[in-house]
Amino acid sequence: MSTPKLIRGLLALPAALLLSGCGTVLMSPSGDLAMRQRDIIIVSTCLMLVIIVPVIFLTLLFAWRYRSSNTQAQYSPEWDHSTLLELLIWSVPLLIIIALGALTWVSTHKLDPYRPLDRIAAHQALPADVAPLTVQVVALDWKWLFFYPEQGIATVNEMAAPVDRPIHFEITSSTMMNSFFIPALAGQIYAMPGMQTQLNAVVNKPGVYEGFSANFSGAGFSGMRFKFRGMSEADFRAWVAHAKSSRDALTRGTYEALAKPSEWVPVHYYGHIAPDLYDAILNRCVEPGQICIKDMPNQNRKAAHAPAKQPLAAASCTAANSRTLRIAMQNAPGREQQ
């Protein structure tokens, strides 16, 4: 082997080692919603390859056929138009754009994260008697807080759900914009303070999956990760019982301490949660005396209809009021010293 080839091979080795650590969770997910999103990626890529592959092939073919050393190639310096070539150049991309547009339109509505699930898997319909599991998610600096309102527990940096049971996520943030992402389950959904986004998803295979923030949010962003556990119904009940056995209660005071910026926070369970705490976080009124966002319209209406403390004439700029103000300023303390 020549020296240049040996050098190129040695340079390619570190790249191969780095790529060996890459996962393919997006291409082999464990949730039906993520699986359908994977299919869209594959179909879109294949449609685009209909253009890319022939263009690359023809580029190489023309470069070889019309090389300077090929004296047998036809030389047509006056050629400038071909109807057939124009039809191919414009019709094929147009058909691909139409196909991609139709795919995007249909999938955007069918895979809307706010839309309740209509199936568990490709060949498994959603049972009529199965209620979704509600999980309320709060993005903190820099950890994740999960409320289970039906079970009365809360967890930090770990969540679990039964296999083949729909999950309804309600997502918000405490301070800054973040992004809730479990690649094996579904696409990422933004978390924003004072607002609530939603996600409906399902996990079809037991396992432990990685969840993280997909939106940079400061110094501790790299450690903003959590574990999502897909398990059987019996294992989920055992997991809930383990969390409820914790003597720690998530009160408003405990939440205020938890919400302070911290990095690489270990998993923690709260066996009891304060009533309406998630609602207070969402409406930014955890601290005493704060007005909840949802109550602000009522406060504004009350203020608009409240009687004025003084007549309008007393607050108007009239000649009498101007004289009163001038006399008061002249008699103000310290006026004689100026």
From TrEMBL:
Q: Which locations, inside or outside the cell, does it occupy?
A: Cell membrane; Periplasm
User: What InterPro entries does UniProt report for this protein, alphabetically?
Assistant: CcO_II (IPR045187), CcO_II-like_C (IPR002429), COX_ARM (IPR010514), Cupredoxin (IPR008972), CuRO_UO_II (IPR034227), Cyt_c_oxidase_su2_TM_dom (IPR011759), Cyt_c_oxidase_su2_TM_sf (IPR036257), Cyt_o_ubiquinol_oxidase_su2 (IPR006333)
Does the record carry Manganese as a key word?
no
Positions of transmembrane segments: 6-28, 40-64, 84-106
Q: Which residues belong to any copy of the Cytochrome oxidase subunit II copper A binding domain?
A: 130-242
A GO cellular component term found in this entry reads: periplasmic space
What GO annotations for molecular function exist for this entry?
copper ion binding; cytochrome bo3 ubiquinol oxidase activity; cytochrome-c oxidase activity; oxidoreductase activity, acting on diphenols and related substances as donors, oxygen as acceptor
For this protein, the record's Pfam families field holds:
COX2, COX_ARM
Name the CDD domains on file.
CuRO_UO_II
Membrane topology of this protein: Multi-pass membrane protein
Query: Chief location of this protein?
Result: membrane
The Cytochrome oxidase subunit II transmembrane region profile domain sits at: 18-115
* Annotated keywords: Cell membrane, Electron transport, Lipoprotein, Membrane, Oxidoreductase, Palmitate, Respiratory chain, Signal, Transmembrane, Transmembrane helix, Transport
Question: Which GO biological process annotations does it have?
Answer: ATP synthesis coupled electron transport
NCBIfam families in alphabetical order: CyoA
| PANTHER family found in the cross-reference section | CYTOCHROME BO(3) UBIQUINOL OXIDASE SUBUNIT 2 (PTHR22888:SF18), CYTOCHROME C OXIDASE, SUBUNIT II (PTHR22888)
Spell out the family assignment given in the record's similarity comment: Belongs to the cytochrome c oxidase subunit 2 family.
Official protein name in the record: Ubiquinol oxidase subunit 2
